[in-house]
Amino acid sequence: MEQTTKCEMLLTVNGEQHSVIARPADTLLFVLRTILGLTGAKPGCLNGDCGACTVLVNDVPIKSCMILAIETVEKKITTIEGLKHTPIQQAFVEHFAFQCGYCTPGFIMNAHALTKKHPLASDEIIQEWLQSNICRCTSYKEIEEAVKTVLANNSASLNDNHF
Amino acid sequence: MIGNSVIRKEAWDKVTGAAKYTNDYIKAGTLHAKLVTSRYAHAKIKEIDTRAAQTVPGVRAILTGEGLPLTGEDLRDRPPIAFEKVRYHGEVVAVVVADTLVQAEKAANLVRITYEPLPVVGSPREALKEGAPLIHEQLGSYQKGIGTYPEPNTNIAHRTKIRKGNMEKGWAESDVVVEANISFSPSDHAAMETRCAIAEIRPDGYIMIHASSQSPFMIKKLISSYFGEDVGKVIVHTPLVGGAYGGKTPVQLELLAYLASKAVGGRKVSIWNTREDDIITSPVHIGLEATVKLGCTNDGYLKAAEILYLFDGGAYSDKAIDVSRAGAVDCTGPYHIENVWCDSLCVYTNHPYACPFRGFGHGELSFAIERTMDLLAEKLQMDRLELRMKNAIRPGHTTPTQVLLNNSNVGNLPKCIKRLRELIHWDDWQRIEIDARTVRAKGVSCIWKTSTVDTDASSGAILTFNPDGSINLISGVVEIGTGTKTILAQILAEKMKMDIKDIHVKMEVDTQTTPEHWKTVASRGTFMAGRAVLEAADDAIRQLKEIASIVLRTPIEDLEVGYGKVFLRDDPTIYVDIKDIAYGYKYPNGNAIGGQIIGLGNYILRHLTYLDKETGAGKPGPEWTVGAQAVEIEFDKRDYTYKIIRAVSVIDIGKVLNEKAAIGQVIGAMSMGLSWASRETFLFDRYERVLNPQLRTYRPLRFGEHPEYVVEFVETPQIDAPYGARGAGEHGLIGMPAALANALSIAAEVPLNELPLVPELIWRKKKGEHHGSI
Amino acid sequence: MVPFDFTYHQPSSIQEAIQLFQTLQQQGKKTMYYAGGTEIITLSRLNLVFTEAVIDIKGIPECRTLRFDKNYLVLGAALSLTTIEEANVFPLLSKAASEVADRTARNQITLGGNICGQIFYREAVLPLLLTDSDVIIAGKDGLKQLPIQQIFQKQMRLHPGEFLVQIMTEQTYLSLPYRSIKKRKQWEVGYPLVTVAALKTNEQIRVAFSGVCPFPFRSQTVEERLNDRQLPLESRINEALHHLPRPILDDIEGSAEYRLFVLKHTLFDIITELEGE
Question: For the Aldehyde oxidase/xanthine dehydrogenase a/b hammerhead domain, which residue ranges apply (chain B) (predicted)?
């Protein structure tokens, strides 16, 4: 009975194509974790409230608990496993921007997209974006410092290019 | 090495998604359980009909509460699955086990339960009223631990009494007396990782548990004790834990996972809390109603304290008893008072049951005490910090449980207050009108805390050497985010005079191969496990020197260990590399001596005692960390809204071991304290059902709502602690609610003695004063 | 986790969507249109929504329109709120939308989904009510254009099988002075205590509300009282408050009495500022 409701979908995750069999009602988060074994995206509420499951869909941060896997067919999905040695990861490490680490993949995905889309983001934009995620260990000050370090480097390199 | 901001060992795992938490280990073939929970806060269970649920494909078992032993750490009052009646909204009534989570959920939705609602108890004061419904009719028959005193035929699970000095004398010497009532409802830890437990019973009888827990060793002991399993056959694995804050000390889901596995012939079963279950079904942050009466002389010296703490333990006492006891132990806050009367009660209500929360009763008691201190200062017309300075606890004073303090077992509170005063520019202004609507104000509080852990709590460490001379560090401390395992590596690197990169820390705890660390609680990881690591290092050093003395043909006494070598103290050019002896030493002809170096160490807390039943006298913990805190706010007099501008902590940490990590612990705790104080609470309806069991309606602080944080440390070493360091994982939280309430009370010019401090509360209090202001 | 199964359909035209709905319904399947999906997923896991089929309208080009057509701004119902915010062609809508949920969620939440949703705040509708926007509805008889005031009464009054395709707003409204203020129980994130959006046109102030009652609304009586400039502002506001629809929300976000307190000050600030412009 279960089988008949499932279908095959072709997902592109971190640059690799995967054919998965899942229910249309399955969320992207479920498929990433349970079928593809990519457990970096974390379930925190399954309700779109906490941001721990944030991934990028076509470079836009999306709460993967709030989107069906089938909606992401033919789109480009990036998870924390797809980020390698990015400035934001380095900055999170150096600024002690996490403790337990559970919210970290979601925060990093969101912050990474932010620093790409708004290389010179204002405080207002940083706040608007990062308010989507909850961190229960840090004071957020550490995360703010990490993100601002990356932005400052963006700004420095832009200046280098221009002058 | 000591003091350096060493990056945590698991840092790169955590920023790449490689870090694994309990729920990340679920493999194909694992069955999934879904909890069926109560819609009522207090009701008889008339019938549980599982017939429809059983027909859902994939369902393997449905468990209900019959025939299970009662559980509880101090008092066995809780059936793992409700039996005959439910006592809180969200209590587990049945557990459905199925092949997939979807099937389990489908079936859970089909379990039909018929209830007969009972009158509910909504607060400790209600619970103590004559004729209040009894939540535990059989309280008198429950099995209880030493030092637990339930009062049968009442809703009192436990009472701790503090009787110090002579109250009559104290009141007679008091010129000024104030009394305050404070209260707040239970709230939640809201760790980002919800609790999860996986159990499997192997054909040979070994019980394998994977759990997101602060107490893997307690899980093993309790499963053994409740269900008669051999303690050595229960093996608990705890990987990284995604936030705990005390909420993962109780043993709850693990019991259900064990029972569920047993019901399906030992197959592996996973129970993973939804956020809603995690908020109300699993244990919560305790609530409190308190009355504090303080007396002092005209010049502000405290003479008497009469304190009633009514902790809202919820439906089951579990660790709430211990929290209420901790509240009694440090009931006066960090002040020297010769005459103290305190009753601290753990009271049953029909609320979700409580457990430790970061600060372990101290954030709670400090809110009561520090609000009263401000009221006293007001009445005396005395500077609020001066009043605190005058009464600050010091060496030579005794605590409420009559422990004599000395230069080691208590930090330097006057120094903290003095530094705080400078940092917040206290003497410039304390309340200032910015314009017609805006006022700024500063609120202060002082904190102290000891750790009321079991008197025989111990910690062990094992160091195994690798062929290259690097060391594997194995400790029973759970990495819950505090970075303790990295600090242990720092302690070891310092001791061995080696590069920290050559220390490999085992992050996961496995109770079969990891030596016990009692529980990862009470800011005690660094102290206890640190002592164990130092002892293990001494053991390894002794073994290294023994082999080296043979190889180098020299007395052991002439040798030193460090920098990857064992060398002659007077001539370091004569040495042997540790890598050449870590696995034994091989002579050129093939003969070998020694063997792998394995250093062992343990530490047990010393001289702790139970508290006297009638007076509370006794030694509850090893040392008291102290500190002074402040919050500065900007308040809108028209709207009663406010912003937190700055939060400041000065804490006597003994010795800073890792600066950034220490600051991170303190500001993280401050953030949690401000979040709790400013917005977190359960909201109950009149049937005591929780109305906000989601992060959408139970809303912790978010990015951008955070103030500026300022942290400074004072260093008064605790002589028996590793490098003098004191516990500091919780202390940043303790004074935040009180400091915020004090600042807002000053700004709004109305006493604010409740939490959370939302603008509507301030509006309500102001309206109570000036009728019909809107 | 959605504890039931549904089939997923992604039509590429309005026609196809309508057809699909008919077919699925004939098969006896409970069917829902699906845009951002956030609310359907949220409420499904709480067993507050049940469906056997979803028709995702995000693949329909008309539903993703963002363009000016003659004197109208045309916005597709499946545009995400952040797309609308960033395009910023309708500043009042950008502002009101930007206060919904959080930024990441708004990458997913759509204009149509917010307006047609069950969760009763539906704050994106406020600017549409204030600008007398029209809505384009698709149904089995084809497309129809209706004033939003007509079809949005507390909620969208769509017939089974119909779905919202587009919103059309007269361009002249887009540059008028406006305010939109959301007040919450505490600070930045959460449902509203009150949300007030206002627009000034021909020296008259239009006001629409969310969070005050269990539905968003714009009220002619309330606006008349607020614009009765013969009276001092405070009296106008008090009069307006008396004429609010009922019930005033009294829930975990705030008591009814407190909401009115907050609303009063919010209106005071908005009107003072707008009348000053």
Answer: 16-119
